[in-house]
Amino acid sequence: MKRQHVLGVIALFLLLAIDQGSKYLAVHFLQGHPDVILIPGVFQLEYLENRGAAFGILQNQRVLLLIVTLIIFGGLCYFYCKMGSGRKWRPLQSAIVLIAAGAIGNMIDRFARGYVVDFFYFSLIHFPVFNVADCYVVVGAVIALLLLLFYYKEEDFEQIFPSGSSRQHSSEKKDND
In angstroms, what CA-CA distances link 147 with 5, 84, 152, 153? Predict the structure, then answer.
């Protein structure tokens, strides 16, 4: 196993531990108790059992959400393993690990509890209640999007997604030799 794969797995497990630990604390200290106001009128800790996906969509579609999460995780693993190992790829690898940790963190909840534990609530803007795993997914996705739009070039992804034209070009080159 390559060094970056080992580091990615270690980071994934560390992030999962933080997510699952925060959810354990939320269940232990928030479930059945009044909300904890951290910044009055702005931010509070509020226990919520989310039986759907982001923003409460797909309520009670546990099996579908588990399948979709496994497919996404598989794609992320494939992409991560096909990436180069140089410094250039570290930011995208980090973003992928964040997204994967968030997806798996919420999948663990769906599988073990039948719902996802959410507890962060921005009351100022009435934003949906969310959790640490949700933060991982959003931050990782934003970083990945910015990197894909502004940092990486199309040719950087040739080793991951070889285009037909490059294979054709290399076979034509062999024929000419």
Answer: 20, 15, 6, 9
Q: How many CB atoms lie within 10 A of CB 49?
A: 14
Helices (H), the chain: 3-30, 62-82, 90-112, 132-150, 164-176
What one-letter code names the amino acid at 47? Y
How does pLDDT run across 151-172, given as a tens digit for each residue?
Answer: 888 777 776 677 654 444 444 4
Amino acid residing at 79: F
Give the pTM. 0.81
DSSP secondary structure letters along 90-121:
HHHHHHHHHHHHHHHHHHHHHHHTSSEEEEEE
Residue with structure tokens 């190992």?
85
The owner of tokens 């979709």 is 68
- The catalytic residue positions are 118, 134
Of 117, 91, 95, 160, give the one whose Cα is nearest residue 21: 117
